[in-house]
Write a structure and sequence with these properties.
alpha+beta, four-stranded antiparallel sheet, 11 helices, elongated
Length: 508
């Protein structure tokens, strides 16, 4: 009578050993290799950019190949107000909270799947039933009785062909995908704050430059009106000057609107309502242009960009799904057992004579399913091919962004130097034209042309200055933002200390 339990225990031990020794079905994921290139651009970059001495943002910038990025890369701009605003945004922006919530959700989903797949399912049952049997069935006994029962049921499916391991592998890849989504949100949010602050500073400088030119033209208009009153000039000259002043004055409201919208955006990025006020007012003079620009090696970019890492984890999850679909084509073993008691009185429920137990094993094998399992495997393989293509597209886009930023830094530095020279020459030409006009040496049309040239050159200079700051921020963002140097890398927001509200109380 003891042979059966021994035999079942032996079978159970063999099946568990087979499950532990089995290999997972499907392909083993391999990390994609970095692109075989030694340069971001087709032609070599200069060692340093052009310089525009004496102009804000005109310092030459040097590319330092192989230098790592700091974790708090925005601090390179040397603005305490900008640093505080970025920290406030990272601590209070809802997008960061949403990204971290998605990460916690993925972690709990993994824990749930791990618990259900790696361990046996154990359930307890306690019940009581009142029954009445038909007279023919009851015999000489009572037809009405109460039945008490208590039992513990155990079931387990050994992972013989690796379906559980591949499922957990895919769930872990989803966790890592959400981790890198947190990093991507962190990087995008901090970059948006920096670029919006630079845009606000540029608009404020453009407003100031426009107002300076407007003041000069208004003074000139006052002189021309007196000359007209004395009959020294024709009315057409007066009307031309008034038109020039009116056109310049009309350009002020759009700049004011754009500046106000930039400040509203900064407030929203910081997790605040636009009407609360209290945001810092950024100017180009309060920002320092970094003179050394870190430039990591191209081979390291695929490990530094959070969007590339996230795409890689999607590829990893797609690879694991092939294993799950492959394992579904093989037989599945199920082991189960129960131990309990059943009695007609609660007091006898746990007596030895009322004890009952069972051990069972089952094998389920797919025999015919109309090709459904094969189709699911082919669908998983197609999904993997799509994820691989999306990964390559993400890599190409990342390298393009870095190359675009490098060329923009080079070109915009040269443009600022040329624009600074043009602004200086336009200022000298206007001063000379104004003096000559007062002496009657040139016509009013010649003076008007000099005024227009100076206005255009002065505003263009401010725009060229802001472009250099924006290009620098774009490069630091394109290179990944240095998250890997921040306390092991992930998660992002938990490593950022809470910042005060303005105007208000890893890799695997």
């Amino acid at each position: 009578m003891r042979k059966k339990p021994r035999l079942q225990r032996s079978v159970l031990a063999l099946v568990v050993a087979a499950g532990l020794a089995a290999c997972a079905s499907g392909p083993d994921f391999r990390q994609p290799a970095a692109p075989a290139t030694s340069s971001y651009t087709s032609t070599a970059l200069p060692e340093r950019t052009a310089a525009a001495p004496g102009v804000t943002g005109g310092a030459a910038q040097q590319f330092v190949a192989g230098q790592d990025l700091p974790a708090m890369w925005w601090q390179l701009f040397g603005s305490p107000a900008l640093d505080e605003l970025v920290r406030a945004a990272l601590a209070q922006n809802p997008s960061m909270a949403a990204a971290e919530a998605s990460l916690r959700q993925a972690q709990e989903v993994y824990k749930a799947q791990s618990g259900s797949l790696n361990y046996p399912s154990v359930n307890g049952q306690l019940g009581v039933a009142r029954e009445k049997l038909a007279p023919a069935s009851a015999g000489n006994g009572a037809g009405v009785f109460t039945l008490y029962n208590a039992s513990v049921n155990v079931s387990y499916t050994p992972d013989v062909f690796g379906a559980s391991r591949r499922t957990l592998e895919g769930a872990q890849a989803q966790v890592d995908y959400q981790r890198f989504q947190v990093e991507a949100t962190y990087l995008t949010l901090s970059a948006n704050v920096v670029t919006t602050a630079i845009r606000a500073a540029s608009l404020r400088a453009q407003l100031q430059a426009t107002q300076e030119v407007l003041d000069a033209l208004s003074k000139q208009l006052a002189v021309i009106e007196k000359q007209f009153e004395l009959g020294a000039i024709p009315r057409t000259t007066l009307l031309s000057q008034r038109n020039q002043v009116a056109q310049l004055r009309a350009s002020v409201p759009p700049l004011e609107k754009a500046l106000a919208q930039s400040r509203h955006q900064l407030a929203a990025l910081a997790g605040r309502l636009p009407g609360e006020g209290g945001l810092p007012e950024f100017t180009l003079d309060t920002l320092t242009l970094p003179q050394q620009l870190p430039l990591t090696l191209p081979s390291a970019l695929v490990r530094q960009r959070p969007d590339i890492r996230a795409s890689e984890e999607q590829l990893h999850a797609a690879s694991a799904a092939i294993g799950v679909a492959t394992a579904a084509q093989y037989p599945q073993l199920t082991l189960s057992g129960s131990y309990g008691s059943s009695a007609q009185s609660f007091g006898k429920l746990f007596d030895a004579e009322t004890t009952a137990w069972s051990l069972a094993s089952g094998l389920t094998a797919p025999l015919f399913n109309g090709g459904a399992l094969s189709a699911k495997k082919r669908a998983a393989e197609a999904a993997y091919d799509g994820a691989a293509a999306q990964y390559r597209a993400t890599v190409l886009s990342a390298f393009q962004e870095v190359a675009d930023s490098l060329r923009a830094l080079e070109s915009d530095a040269a443009a600022l130097k040329a624009q600074a020279d043009a602004d200086a020459l336009a200022g000298e030409a206007l001063a000379l034209a104004t003096q000559q006009y007062k002496l009657g040496g040139i016509s009013y049309l010649a003076l008007l042309d000099a005024q227009r040239s100076y206005q255009q050159a002065h505003v263009a200079l401010v725009q060229a200055q802001a472009a250099r700051y924006a290009d620098t921020a774009a490069l630091l963002q394109a290179l990944g933002g240095g998250w890997w140097n921040r306390n092991g890398g992930m998660p992002a927001a938990s490593t950022v200390s809470a910042a005060p509200v303005y105007g208000a109380g890893g890799s695997r």
